[in-house]
Write a structure and sequence with these properties.
Elements: H1 2-31, H2 40-47, E1 52-55, E2 61-65, E3 76-80, E4 86-90
Antiparallel strand pairs: 1-2, 2-3, 3-4
Domain Outer membrane protein assembly factor BamE: 27-88
Protein name: Outer membrane protein assembly factor BamE
Signal peptide: 1-21
């Protein structure tokens, strides 16, 4: 039984970086679809739930999504105004969706 548990733990450890890379690639691919003026609901439909959320100036907020490898991450940031509309989308430099992030 201990061997089985160890194998399951090892498999999960090996698969976790692959999931991170896939999620990162999807975030990059989807980021370029976010447009100024979109609602929070529209962004959530494209990007999914944000990894982080911070308050911004003027009662707005910024949602963050991960992009990069396990050791070199660059957040993708979507900024909203007080009414919940996108005012800016900052995709990682490589966030064109044409290349998968390296390092995982």
């Amino acid at each position: 039984m201990k061997v089985f548990v160890s194998l399951v733990a090892l498999a999960a450890t090996l698969l976790l970086p692959a999931c991170t890379a896939q999620e990162s690639f999807q975030n990059a691919e989807n980021c370029v679809k976010v447009k100024i003026g979109m609602s929070e609901q529209q962004v959530r439909g494209i990007m999914g739930a944000p990894t982080g959320e911070d308050a911004a100036e003027g009662s707005g907020k910024t949602w963050s999504y991960l992009f990069g490898s396990a050791t070199d991450t660059q957040p993708i940031r979507i900024q909203f105004d007080a009414s919940g509309k996108v005012t800016a989308a900052t995709c990682a430099p490589e966030a064109s969706g044409s290349e998968r992030p390296t390092g995982n």
